[in-house]
Amino acid sequence: MKVRSSLRALKRKADSIVVRRRGKLFVLNKSDRRQKARQG
């Protein structure tokens, strides 16, 4: 999982969802499981 300052590029990909957990933003992708990122 990558920690990024901007999640804009990752959240534009197909099947990606933006989730807020424990005060952090996560981007997860159902079709490509390797596309994960955290912000904050």
Automatic annotation (TrEMBL):
Gene Ontology terms: biological process: translation
Keywords: Ribonucleoprotein, Ribosomal protein
PANTHER family linked: 50S RIBOSOMAL PROTEIN L36 2, LARGE RIBOSOMAL SUBUNIT PROTEIN BL36B
Gene: rpmJ
Family listed: Belongs to the bacterial ribosomal protein bL36 family.
Protein name in UniProt: Large ribosomal subunit protein bL36
GO molecular function: structural constituent of ribosome
HAMAP family in the cross-refs: Ribosomal_bL36
Lineage: Bacteria, Bacillati, Actinomycetota, Actinomycetes, Micromonosporales
GO cellular component, one term: ribonucleoprotein complex
Organism from which the protein derives: Micromonospora sp. HUAS YX12
